[in-house]
Amino acid sequence: MHVGVVTEVKPGERRVALTPAGAHELVAHGHDVLVQAGAGVGSGIADGDYAAAGARIVDAAATVWEHSELLLKVKEPLEDERGHLHRDQALFTYLHLAADAALTDALVRSGTTAIGYETVTGGGDPSRPGLPLLAPMSEVAGRLATQAGAYFLQAPLGGPGILIGGAPGVQPARVVVIGGGVVGLQAARVAVGMGAEVTILERSVPRLAWLEEFFDGRARVLMSDALTLRDELRHADIVVGAVLIPGAAAPKLVTRDMLTDMRSRAVLVDVAIDQGGCAETSTPTTHDDPTYVVDDVVHYCVGNMPGAVPVTSTRALTNATLPYVLALADHGVDGAVERLPGLAPGINVRGGEIVLAAVAEAHDRAADAGRPTVG
Questions:
Q1: How far is CA 175 from CA 115, 199, 232, 246, 339, in A?
Q2: Is the dihedral of CA 252, 132, 23, 349 positive or negative?
Q3: Residues pairing with 294 in the sheet
Q4: What is the C-alpha to C-alpha distance for residues 227 and 256, in angstroms, rounded to an integer?
Q5: Where would you tag: which of 107, 150, 181, 289 has the fewest CB atoms within 10 A of its CB?
Q6: Cβ(95)–Cβ(120) under 8 Å?
Q7: Could you report the per-residue pLDDT of 76-96, keeping only the tens digit for each?
């Protein structure tokens, strides 16, 4: 199979979808690997490293798109890339289609088989987490969320001038984490480690019990409801939005009127922004221009947070994706799904139809699917 890797063009994105080690594995399996020149530079990987692994270096992105039966990316195709989509291709990348009607339409029109990392599941395999290809980037994003919040608490950056860990005799910052999944856990771990006063809000009773045991008094763990959320926001210096409904748009838990009760220049880090954000006032930002202010609350809504640490992120991501990439290249989409059942819910769009229920429902297009939707 012809497997292609293109340079990411999303602003501030420096990750790459395949390492030389992955290219070597694919070549050893008899596949032709095409890598766009410069694709790995942002992650500290030279073209020569890919060439040494047996990949072919191609100058033009269009050539890689045209000749690839399996196209590997990190982020969703941007508008300028969508003209390259074609029916005889499987696209394997983060998609987050519930928050992107234009991309969904483009994928449907193209006939491409679009497989989203974020909706691949463990398929019942106890050795794999619930969302094995989302988990590594969720871990990175969660850890970065607290770092970003702490950074933008500084007065020269528009914050209130608070040190997250406080000082002897001085109260530390209060951090509220909305959601106790992978992102929320990592954000809370870093916040606790930095000396903050941490509260985690979560709705799952079993998860509440697990978090309570994990933190063992180092963080408060509370059942999440609208009244509790509003009360916690009043006292927060940093709020981390870590809400996830796999494949679906994020619920708008933080309403506009809640901001008026928050502290002046508190920082809201909305990690759910790829799925539309969990605050009504959240709008995607970039690493070059990461924040804006609404009602005196600083919003940090960068849609590709792990792209800020590409050396770490690329390796963490490709460690997780490579077994699926090899299965897709060796056996095709249907054969890979037989061997790795968790790939099935990863298929968002195929043959001009939306086949993931959460995406179809997000765009009021459930009737478009000519076969039963996955979900």
A1: 35, 6, 9, 25, 43
A2: negative
A3: 297
A4: 15
A5: 289
A6: no
A7: 999 999 999 999 999 999 999
Q: 3-class DSSP state for residue 314? A: helix
Give the count of alpha carbons within 13 A of 14, CB side only: 18
The structure tokens listed for 294 are 């609404």
> At residue 245, what are phi and psi to the nearest 5 degrees?
-120, 110
Q: Would you mind telling me the total number of residues written for the chain in this entry?
A: 375
Lookup: tokens for 303:
């849609």
Closest CA to 345 of 370, 316, 374: 374
| Segments in 221-348 forming alpha helices (H) | 226-234, 256-259, 310-339
User: Which tokens hold the place of 181?
Assistant: 């999944």
Instruction: Name beta bridge partners: 356.
Output: 374
Confidence of residue 367 (pLDDT cuts 50, 70, 90): very low
The alpha carbon of residue 14 and the mean position of all alpha carbons in its chain are separated, in whole angstroms, by 14
Q: Tell whether the model's pLDDT for residue 372 goes beyond 50.
A: no
CA pair distance 78, 13, nearest whole angstrom? 12
Residue 332 CA to residue 90 CA, distance in Å, equals 9
Is residue 324 within 8 Å of 117, Cβ to Cβ?
no
Verify whether residue 368 is a known catalytic residue. Answer: no
C-alpha–C-alpha distance, residues 93 and 74, integer Å: 5
pTM of this prediction exceeds 0.90: no
Catalytic residue among 84, 237, 274, 299: 274
At 201, list the tokens. 């809000």
Can you tell me which residue has the tokens 């394997």? 92
- Specify the amino acid at residue 85: L
Q: Which residues contact 204 (CB under 8 A, 6 or more apart)?
A: 180
Domains defined for the chain, CATH in brackets: 2-123+309-368 (3.40.50.720), 135-308 (3.40.50.720)
Reply yes or no on whether 88 is catalytic.
Answer: no
Residue 122, pLDDT score: 86
**Catalytic residue (choose from 96, 100, 237, 299):** 96
The confidence score (pLDDT) of residue 4 equals 98
Q: Is the pLDDT of residue 263 over 90?
A: yes
